[in-house]
Amino acid sequence: MPTMRSVIVLQILSVLIGLSCSLNPRDPNVCILWESFTTSVKESYQHPYDQVTDEPCADPRTSYRCLHHRITYKTAYRQAVKTDYRKRYQCCPGFYESRDKCVPRCTKECVHGRCVAPDRCQCEGGWRGDDCSSGMTFPLPHSRHSVCSSLSLTQTQLTFTKKKQEEEQDEEVEEEEEEERNKQRHEMKQFSSSSRDCT
Question: What are the structural domain ranges in the chain?
Answer without folding.
Answer: 25-92, 106-137
